[in-house]
Amino acid sequence: MTQDTKPQKAKAADGGILETVKVIIQALLIAVVVRTFLFQPFNIPSGSLIPTLLVGDYLFVSKYAYGYSKHSFPFSAAPFSGRIFASDPKRGDIAVFKLPKDGTTDYIKRVIGLPGDRIQMIDGRLFINGTMVPRQQTTPYRTTDSYGRQVDVPAYIETLPGGVSHEVIEREGDHGYWDNTFEYVVPANNYFMMGDNRDNSTDSRALNDVGYVPFENFVGRAEIIFFSVDSGPEEAGEHSSGLIGMVKNVFNMHIRWNRIFQRIK
After folding, report:
1. Where are the beta strands (DSSP E) in 103-217?
2. What was the pLDDT predicted at 236?
3. Total Cβ atoms within 10 A of residue 145
4. Cα dist. 198→51, 109, 201, 210 in Å?
């Protein structure tokens, strides 16, 4: 009787380990499926979309919003090109995409120009297909200037063709570096992306750095902020990124409670 007990205990222990391994594998598979096909978390490392998104915002991006390309999969590893179950991005969407020049860096900007559109900035005003986009001045926005000093800057509610309204800021007024451009013509199957922080955004206006974004490079649409921490000067990008950074900021009590579960628009 005593001799039989030890093998039985060993078998029970082996069975418990196998069950634990199975549960871990199942959990990992579920996480991979959710991340690949449904929602993927991202955090905001720069101030290019201030005031809509702030440094330290953590958000969910819907992977299914535009269908799936190779960039929908981890490490862009998929055995096909183009998109399946495709749905076109809409003007005004805030979208995550892979930087065209390297195909690996994640960028997040607002969709401003659709395929075939003509886009131009003249004295700080956005023109789409030759028509000035209307904007209405609102309360000045407090942010940091290029030297890290706290300043109040002009803010506007801009209404894009199609009716999407969103806030933009002009840190350098209407005479910043990108406030006067030539006219861009968006190629077929490409999109023109811009930040809401118009004087502090590297976006499609910089053709050598970002340029036009192919539809295939879209990863998903930003939907909701699920966590937000104030990690210091927003536009300097001083923050702790990733899960470790989020945990650190929880203990430092820098949580922006008023931003949690805010829908992104």
Report:
1. 106-113, 118-122, 125-128, 131-132, 135-144, 150-159, 165-169, 184-185, 190-194, 213-214
2. 37
3. 14
4. 11, 11, 6, 15
Nearest to 223 by CA among 52, 74, 69, 70: 52
User: Which pLDDT score, from 0 to 100, does residue 235 have?
Assistant: 40
For the chain, list residues with pLDDT below 70. 1-16, 19-23, 25-39, 75-80, 231-253
Q: Which of 63, 70, 109, 228 is catalytic?
A: 109
49 CB-near residues (< 8 Å, 6+ apart) = 94, 108, 109, 110, 195, 196, 197, 201
**Residue 51: cis peptide before it, omega within 30 degrees of 0:** yes
DSSP state of 79: S
Residue 70 confidence (pLDDT)? 76
Q: What angle do CA 152, 156, 160 make, to 5 degrees?
A: 150
How many Cα atoms occupy the beta-carbon half-sphere of 30 within 13 Å?
6
Residue 109 appears among annotated catalytic residues: yes
Alpha carbon distance 213, 46 (integer Å): 19
Instruction: Return d(Cα 104, Cα 239) in angstroms, integer.
Output: 22
Single out the catalytic residue among 46, 48, 69, 231.
48
Backbone CA torsion sign across 219, 225, 227, 231: positive
